[in-house]
Amino acid sequence: MVQREPFHMIQVSIPSLEKEVEESGKSKKLFRVEVLFNERKHYVLRRNSEFQTLHRKLKKIIQTPDFPSKRSPHLRTKPLEQRRQERSSIKMKMCHRCCWTSSM
């Protein structure tokens, strides 16, 4: 009989945006990505460009939803909170697809 390892649930969320001011005085917006795994919470701060890079890499191996353009006129007028929610929604769709295909 083959003994299987227990299934571990991974929860990923983007609960907030943070601003970081560089030494030059220029500010940048960072998304706080939180991961809950084995009852331990970890977080990283990531820029929009890093999400785009990840999206391009994932798109090569799985089917992903379109990534909203940063330069799109409607995004410039959207509040940051709405953009955060969109990133979180895209991330969840990709996680579901990734988990679904890897479990088959």
Explain this structure.
The structure is a single chain. The chain has 104 residues and is of the alpha+beta class. It has a single domain, classed as PX Domain, CATH 3.30.1520. It is built from three helices and three strands. A hairpin with a 2-residue loop joins strand 2 (27-37) and strand 3.
Descriptive key words:
three-stranded antiparallel β-sheet; 38% helix; protein transport; disordered C terminus; transport; PX Domain; PX_dom_sf; 104 residues; alpha+beta; globular; 3 helices
Low-confidence stretches: 100-104
What is the annotated CATH architecture? Answer: 2-Layer Sandwich
Q: Classify the secondary structure makeup into a structural class.
A: alpha+beta
CATH class: Alpha Beta
Mean pLDDT across all amino acids: 77
What name is given to the CATH topology?
A: PX Domain
SSE topology string: EEEHHH
Fraction of residues in H or I helices: 25-40%
- Structure summary, number of beta strands: 3
Total of helices:
3
GO molecular function: phosphatidylinositol phosphate binding
GO biological process, one term: protein transport
Keywords: Cytoplasmic vesicle, Lipid-binding, Membrane, Protein transport, Transport
Organism: Cyprinodon variegatus
